[in-house]
Amino acid sequence: MQVPEPERDFVKLECNFLFIQLILSFTQYCDLVQGQGDLLMNLKLDAYAQKYMKKNIPHFEIGDNVDVILKIVEGDKERKQTFNGTVIAISGSGINYMFTVRRIVGGEGVERTFPIHSPKLVTVRVRKRGKIRRAKLYYLRDRVGKGTKLKEKIWLAQDARVSAELSEAAAKEFDSKAEPKAETKK
Amino acid sequence: MISGLLGKKLGMTQIFKDGKCYAVTVVAAGPCKVLQVKKSDGKDGYNAIQLGFEDKKVKSCAKSEIGHAKKHADSAPKSFVREVDWDGKDDIKAGQEITLSVLEKVKYIDVIGTKKGKGFQGVVKRHNFKGGPTTHGQSDRLRAPGSIGASSYPSRVHKGMRMPGQMGNCRGTVRNLEILDIDLGQNIIAINGSVPGAQNGYVILRKSVINK
Questions:
Q1: Yes or no: is domain B32-97 CATH 3.30.300.30?
Q2: SS3 readout for chain B
Q3: To the nearest whole angstrom, how far is the Cα of A18 from the nearest Cα of chain B?
Q4: What's the topology of domain B12-29+99-132+161-212?
């Protein structure tokens, strides 16, 4: 006796589905087993790099207008300098996290790239948020005058507060680390 | 004093020290087991210490490996076994564990490992030859080695002439690398710059020969 046509199709379909699932789970398993060595090793590496990472990191996004606060040493004196501009790129992760800030000084574009875990970087404060549609804002380099301005994004008060708290926490962490050095100088 | 230690390359990352950012290689070094002590006044005729790093599966060992590890040190067979120099002065016995504290007061080290294999390579990649010109009517000369010597005299190619061949997958040493950080608790050492070999490759860390 033959199985009616539609039912047969259904059985076929289900078989195919099961088969695909089987293959998928198998490939996932293979990936896991193959990648395990690398994974374990990277975990060790990451765990080591943690030692040099900051616990409190200020939060900002691409397109934000930010104040980057840096510690500058001139001779014996230390002072804090602010670099204001637009975040045009964020790259890397973990200890390699870097961000690029662009500003216009006297009609000339200036870009600086900072590692976020740098011991010279005090904190980053977000002033305004920008409306963007791209992950890297390199197109700003080709623009002059009014074109360099991004549309402002409306910011929830709560988000603003959280952002401010995060940058404050980063600044505090920086101060707590800097203290013992000042004592030794006395 | 032992002059070195065995380890495994974990990979590269960056660290901050004194306000500067350094590219470092992170190596998991030690603890190593002393498998054998060789003495100049003994059977061997020279001073050295044989170290073993990381246990090896007994299943994949030859009987001689198992026997050797058991004989002097009474330990499990090790997967990376190498000799390091020793001045013969300290009291070191087989079976003892050597940790990173050996390198604690050392500033510079040499790192020996197996370079990444590049296969059979031509002279441009292997010996940094310039290659031939691309223009002025030249053809098939782009990556050629050029002349390899004179004609009737000496009628042969001089020894040591640099030619194509196997590149990498051989022992390599990088000398004079600065130690930036030592973590005795985790048995991890951070070395300034790069080190021969792939990730997870075994390396020998030796006190610098030039910069003591």
A1: no
A2: CECEEEEEEEEEEEEEECCEEEEEEEEEECCEEEEEEECCCCCCCCCEEEEEEEECCHHHCCHHHHHHHHHHHCCCCEEEEEEEEECCCCCCCCCCEECHHHHCCCCEEEEEEECCCCEEECHHHHHCCCCCCCCCCCCCCCCCCCCCCCCCCCCCCCCCCCCCEEECCCEEEEEEEEEEEEECCCCEEEEECCCCCCCCCEEEEEECCCCC
A3: 38
A4: Elongation Factor Tu (Ef-tu); domain 3 (2.40.30)
